[in-house]
Each structure stands twice: as C-alpha cells, then as structure tokens.
Amino acid sequence: MADAMANSFLVIVLPLFIADLGMEGRMFGLSESGTTGVILAVFGFANAFFQPLAGRISDRAGRRKIFVIGGLIAIACLNLLYLLADGTVDILLIRAGQGLTVAFTVTASVALVSELSTGSNRGGNMGSYNALRLTGFGAGPLMAGFVVEGGPYRLSGLELSGFDAAFLLAAFGALLGALLVTILVRDPEAIERQERAFDVPILAPEGSGKHIHTIFALGLATLVMAICISFLGSIEPEVNRHLGQDARWFGIQFGVFILSVASVQPLVGKLSDRWGRKGFVFWGLLLLAPTTLAQGFAAGSWQMLLARIAQGVSGAMVFSPALALAGDHARRGQSGFQLSILTMSFGLGLAGGQLVAGFAVHAGYVVPFAVGAALALLMAWLVRLEVVEVAESP
C-alpha cells in the first residue's frame, strides 16, 4: 500500500509537471498531451517487458523478499531524481528506470501471495492483497492533487514547490514500503530454486479442446481491463477542460475508482473461491464496456465520478479472480514467471491505454472510451470460449 501510494502520486503530478515546463514540456515535436502519454507509457512498457525476466530470476533464486526490498529502495532513489529534472528527456529516463525496478517488486510479491495460498482461498488472498495495494493507488492521487495545488511550502527556511513536495513524499512512501517488508515479510520455507526449463503458457494443452492456454487468455483479459481504466491519466488537461473542473476534482475521480476496486475485491475474491472464478471475469468484462463508454459521454464532474465508481466494480470482478485462476493453473516453482504473464499484461495495458488516449483524444473526446468498450466486449467473448475453470476441494 505504501509503495502504491508513492507511485500513484506521479500519475497526477507528472502531467501537471510537464505542462508547467512550458515549451520544455514538449518532446520530439509532439504535443503536450502526446508527450505526457509517451512519458507515462514508458513506465508501463519498461515494467511490463521486464517482468517475465524478473519473475524467472526470482524463481531460479528461490527467494522473493530480497527482490521486493531492492526494488522499493531503487524506486525511492529515482523519485528523488525528479527534483533535478529540467526537461522531458530527464523525466522519460527516470520513469523508464522506475518501470524496470517495479518489475521485481510486482512479480515477487504476487508470487508470494500465490505460494502462500491454496485453491480454496487464493481468490480471497489475492483480493486482500490487491485491496491494500489499490487503496494506496487511490489515496496517492487524492493526496497529490491537494499537495500540488497547496504549494509552495516553507520548511525550516527552505521553500518547496508543490511538485518538490510531491516527489519527496513519493520517495518517502517507497522507503516506508521497504521498511515494512523488511520487518514483516519472510520467504516461505517451501520455495525451492527452479533449475528446470520454464513452461511458457501460450498454447492450450493437447486434447483440451481449447486453442490458447488459460493463463494467456487471462493475460489478454487483464490487458484490456488495464487499457480501459488508464485512459484518464494522460488526458488530464482535456478531461478537466471538458468537464470544467480543476486538478482536485480529477484527483477525486481518479482515486474513487481505485477505492471502488479496493473495497469490492476482497468480497469478489472470496466469492470466487466458492462459486468459481471464470464467471466473475466474464461478467466483469461485460460490465466494463458500458462503464468505460459512459466516461466519454459524461457531461459533468459528478457524472464522471459515478462512471468511475461503476468501472471500479467491473475492474474488481476481473482482476482478483483472474490472478487467482492463473495461480490455480501455474506450475509449482514457476509462479513468479507464469503469473508475470498477467502482471506484464496489466503493465502493458496501463501503458497502452495512456499512449492511445494521448493521441486518440485528438480525433474526438469520446474515441478512446469507445475503443476500450469494444475491446472489453471482445475479451468477454474470448474468456467464455477459451478459459478453463479449475475446481479444487477446500
């Protein structure tokens, strides 16, 4: 939660920081929104593409905790480097470095949750883990909007801008996360170093009657879910102008979605342990389509707020059951690598959604939301056809 709060600060702060740079906030001839989309997206791409390697390294080492701590410390150091950035290229490089380091914390922590669970409680455990993490993601933007707007600050004779204060708080949050992991977490004794070849779950097993592996299908569903929920990040200025609101309203709308997901996920996870996981993923994707499209037609701040809450419920129905079902299918000793298919997809979706929205919004404000809704319906059809439920007695 502390780590997520620190990182989500930047989703709100960076677009405003880039806009504050003026002409220096443009890069390679791109518009301000295009530049913002690229910078926010590079974090997700670097994070996502590095996750399978990070998962494989932790599987081979037979250790998880050290990778979580090392990643958090590196994230804190990189947050401090924003204080020295004076152009978009600097911000781009720092954000890419953060993506690489977060890959280790995400894959190692998700693998730990899966390895400490069984088929009868994995959904509830994933729901609890994601609820805490997403509470941090929701609180971060909510706090960031007020921190930036409230600057400058005076501290012991030193004047800090709203941006400086936000970057310092983000660094502190990552260090707090590292401290908590150091004190409270230990590796399960059952983890063994993985030396054998790794199975890449793409094609379905022979004789299953399916075309693609369940883990890969769930990864595609997670990809689309992340795309749909990430549009607002790179088009904050356009959203605020369209709705006639300021950064504080945007922070509330961004944060309330995460809080909606976090509050629903534990319940959804526990219910998926009893009723099965595939149904939640399928119906969650169906609900994701209209709740995403509604954001493109929202005419006021309150309408956007309600659409984000509803989208949060649909995201909760997809995320935890998908992770739990992937954990049910993952081979013993390879959970770091195989579950990275979903965490990589989530990172790619966040990056892709921000990038697409940054450019597609120029074709029409509603365009990115309509594209996301269509993709959600397509993934619901894919899940219905290709995903296999795993039934395990409590």
Describe this structure in words.
The protein has 394 residues and is mainly α. It has 14 helices and two strands. It has helices at 2-20, 32-61, 65-81, 88-115, 122-150, 162-184, 214-229, 231-234, 236-243, 247-275, 278-297, 301-329, 335-360, 367-386, and strands at residues 153-155, 158-160. The protein has a two-stranded antiparallel sheet.
- Separation of the first and last Cα atoms: 29 Å
As a percent range, the share of helical residues equals: over 70%
Stated plainly, the CATH topology is called: Growth Hormone, Chain: A
Q: How are helices and strands ordered from N to C? A: HHHHHEEHHHHHHHHH
What's the architecture in CATH terms? Up-down Bundle
Cα shape: globular
Assembly type: single chain
CATH class type = Mainly Alpha
How much is the radius of gyration in Å? 20 Å
What's the CATH superfamily, by name?
A: MFS general substrate transporter like domains
Number of strands: 2
Average pLDDT figure: 82
For the record, the count of structural domains works out to 1
Layout of secondary structure:
Blueprint: H1 2-20, H2 32-61, H3 65-81, H4 88-115, H5 122-150, E1 153-155, E2 158-160, H6 162-184, H7 214-229, H8 231-234, H9 236-243, H10 247-275, H11 278-297, H12 301-329, H13 335-360, H14 367-386
Antiparallel strand pairs: 1-2
Helix pairs in contact: 1-2, 1-5, 1-6, 2-4, 2-13, 3-4, 3-6, 4-13, 5-6, 5-10, 5-12, 7-11, 7-12, 7-13, 7-14, 10-12, 11-12, 11-14, 12-13, 13-14
Summarize the structure.
The protein has 14 helices and two strands, in the order αααααββααααααααα. It is an all-alpha fold. It has a two-stranded antiparallel sheet with strand order 1-2.
